[in-house]
Amino acid sequence: MSQLTFTLAPEPEAAAREKGRLLFAGPVTFVKGVVAMSGLPPADRLEVCFAGRSNVGKSSLINALTGRKTLARASNTPGRTQEINFFALGGDHHAPSEHKYLVDLPGYGYAEAPVAIVAKWQALLKQYLQGRQTLRRAFVLIDTRHGVKSVDEDILTLLDRSAVPYQAVLTKADKVSTTERDATIEQVKAALNRHPAAYPELVVTSSEKGDGIETLRSIIATLE
Which among 91, 51, 90, 85 has a CA at the least distance from the CA of 71? Predict the structure, then answer.
């Protein structure tokens, strides 16, 4: 099998940047938390989802993207909150076709989580990824301080089997030196080469500094 060439996502062009700005400048509303497939909202718009292990900075990234400090909240009890949370993007000034769901998946890799809860969440996640026709891309968050770990490999393998395009997003890039960041990028590239469904562009972000936020907004806004 030929290997993909992974690169860093380029700076968005002006039109894509503006489309991303407008999408996330509009209303962002919490729709519902889902614990079973029967509770999913109607599949009437495109959606993207965010997955990441505990403490990867997923809530901070979603809050940075939407410009809301408390839209997504990290659970105080790791592994206990096992809901899929849906947020609606796009207000009245957007055509309905441009509305999107931003979907926050529960964190994975909690050592303290009860086995039964983990098994139930994994089953729900698998059903969601395989059965949601409007899901256009999954963003897998990787901590720049740690790179791809074994718990990340599990979710990447599941995504390979789910036929959902997915893209790696490195978080907390401001927490390491440039040398450490570059080493992590190379480690992530090598790990993703084993996963054929991975999108070949990495997005490097810092929720605190704002790095990569416009790029990620543009990617989400221009998905069709």
Answer: 85
CA 189 – CA 33 distance, rounded (Å): 33
- Read off the pLDDT band of 214 (50, 70, 90): very high
Residue with tokens 């489309």: 19
Tell how strand 201-204 and strand 7-8 pair up: parallel
Query: Residue 99: what pLDDT?
Result: 87
66-86: pLDDT as tens digits: 998 878 776 555 555 578 999
* pLDDT recorded at residue 110: 61
For residue 2, being part of any structural domain is answered with no
| ∠ CA 95-85-101, rounded to 5° | 15
Tokens of 127: 């059903």
**Does 166 map to a domain?**
yes
Q: How far apart are CA 39 and CA 162, in angstroms?
A: 20
| Structural domain of 44 | 7-222
- Which pair of structure tokens corresponds to residue 159? 């995504």
- CA-CA distance, 160 to 212, in Å (whole number)? 25
Say if 100 falls within a structural domain: yes
Task: Please tell me the total count of domains within the chain.
Answer: 1
Nearest to 203 by CA among 134, 152, 144: 144
In this prediction, residues 193-204 reach a mean pLDDT of 92
Does residue 1 form part of some domain?
A: no
- The per-residue pLDDT for range 7-20, each reduced to its tens digit, is 999 999 999 999 99
Whichever domain contains 19, its CATH number is 3.40.50.300
